């Protein structure tokens, strides 16, 4: 399915989520958008309405399973969802030598439970309809564990592998599953990092790449190509090499 009409995007107040919302916004489309920043989410919603879309914004903590299930199920009942983008995520690093327990738990909660809370409510309805597209946002950092960002890497790796497995399970029901594997994309989350990476892609450009991939039901949508390849290569290195790179001591 390429002509998505009813779309739900989490984490739509910034970055990739905002970029996708604005890209898909046009007359004849309904957008269900969630985010934790109410003011910013409303701004994105208004921009989408200006482009002709019907928009239903909801300030929501995606880790709240009951609230997420209620909003998503109600949206699907009103207008059967063609596309779900599980995009909401927690940040990669605090800059500390060792992550705090609080930060690690937040990463696993948002990046794993948040995705499950987004995707699980729509699987049975999509199966009964025989169509639908699910997008799970992972990261190039999910190709291996990285110092000072172990919980982010671990949570994103889990969602990459889960999404790839889910694709095989749901294909016979006419449901596509794509795993989005971006490198750095500009957002308020990256602005808050202790370091400012060079070469971060704009959210608009990222949305274009993702949109083309979802229209083709690509298994993996990775970008930028150079960074994607480097991180993929790092993930396949033998430990005696990776330990030297990341200064681990046996």
UniProtKB/TrEMBL annotation:
GO terms for molecular function: oxidoreductase activity. GO terms for cellular component: membrane. Keywords: Oxidoreductase. It holds the Pfam family adh_short. InterPro entries: NAD(P)-bd_dom_sf (IPR036291), Sc_DH/Rdtase_CS (IPR020904), SDR_fam (IPR002347). Coiled coil: none annotated. The keyword DNA repair does not apply. PANTHER family: DEHYDROGENASE/REDUCTASE SDR FAMILY MEMBER 7B, DEHYDROGENASE_REDUCTASE SDR FAMILY MEMBER 7B. Belongs to the short-chain dehydrogenases/reductases (SDR) family. This is Short-chain dehydrogenase.
